[in-house]
Amino acid sequence: MDISAVIAAAGFSSRMGAFKPLLPFGGRTVVERVIAAFSQGGVSSVIVVGGHRFTELQRVVIAAGARCTCNSDFRKGMFSSFKHGFRTLPQGIDAVFAHPVDMPLITPNLVRRMMEAFQQHPRAIIQPVFNGQTGRPVLIPGELIPAILGAREDGGMRKVLSVYQDRFRYVASDHPGVLWDMDVLEAYHRLKAYLPHLTG
Known about the structure:
Blueprint: E1 3-8, E2 24-25, E3 28-29, H1 30-41, E4 45-50, H2 54-63, E5 67-70, H3 78-87, E6 95-100, H4 108-120, E7 125-130, E8 133-134, E9 138-141, H5 145-149, H6 156-161, E10 168-172, H7 185-194
Parallel strand pairs: 1-4, 1-6, 4-5, 7-10
Antiparallel strand pairs: 2-3, 6-9, 7-8
Helix pairs in contact: 1-4
């Protein structure tokens, strides 16, 4: 199946005090680790949506084997970056992962299992779950892309997808990293400390 990934990495990282996508994380940068998780998991293509410090980000993304595109409206928030990335996808794509760069603990194994779940339920929205809590990334059928592109940006991805509750299917995660982001420095150190415990 033709499945891509769109990674939102455009924001200012103002609460962190450092540019999150290019922070060191397990011997590479945060964005490189997220790209690798999707690439090694078997997605067809990985697109990183940048904005703030785009030139620096683009160099790293291209070297990591992904495509980088600039969202000039990134100040409107993450949903605008996902919409920008979705506009760059080819027609007829089967599905797309949507994932924020500041959740770098996803694994290739989780990506593969989510794609396997989508193959079994090709109209479903696939989401990981840990201890009853849903996390990221979310895998969205290609047929829903027009609805996302036409949605108001004040509602966000969660609001758009909420009208399709009957389509959700869940894949169990064996670790809590699908729930954890790194908006602040303390969270960044917490995620780095957990990284050696990941497998697959």
